[in-house]
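#dry-run=false #mode=assembly
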Amino acid sequence: MRAAIYPGSFDPLTNGHLSIIARGLKLFDRLIVAIAVNPKKTPLFTVEERVELIKQACPDPRVEVDHFEGLLVNYARQRSVKVLLRGLRAVSDFDYEFQMANMNRTLAPDVETVFMMTGEDYFYISSQLVREAAALGGNVDNLVPKNVLPRLKEKFGLK
Ligand code: ADP
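#status=ok
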């Protein structure tokens, strides 16, 4: 069984994330979508809400949704998974992802990071931009899964 961990904040899950999950399932038998919990940050959606939204949007039994705190490589070891899956959007993602992949390799040489290029329809979608647009009443209907949309509007008191 080939498994990979797809880590991120998923605050909230976007269609860009969904695309990486769908394509990741073509390469791996099992994906663990792992929400990184950072106690120093205040997210828009709680961990429980994010777990629920991802589970609803990804009913595929090959997808497990979990969360972790602390070092990702420690979590990978704890789960006995040797592959980390990341999505790459623009060049701006590259520098950070390159640094992180190298840091993770230094910390855990047995854990490999695999990158998938985003689809052209998704390269501009980030959770942060979705949050900002939604907060200002912008139309994000095509950017997030159907189940996320009403919850997002609710957060900002929109209909
Ligand atoms: P964001 O950067 O949108 O806040 P996360 O921190 O949750 O998202 O990202 C988790 C992973 O998903 C990262 O590897 C990120 O590069 C990737 N990702 C996020 N949005 C997209 C997208 N639109 N297309 C491809 N990959 C994406």
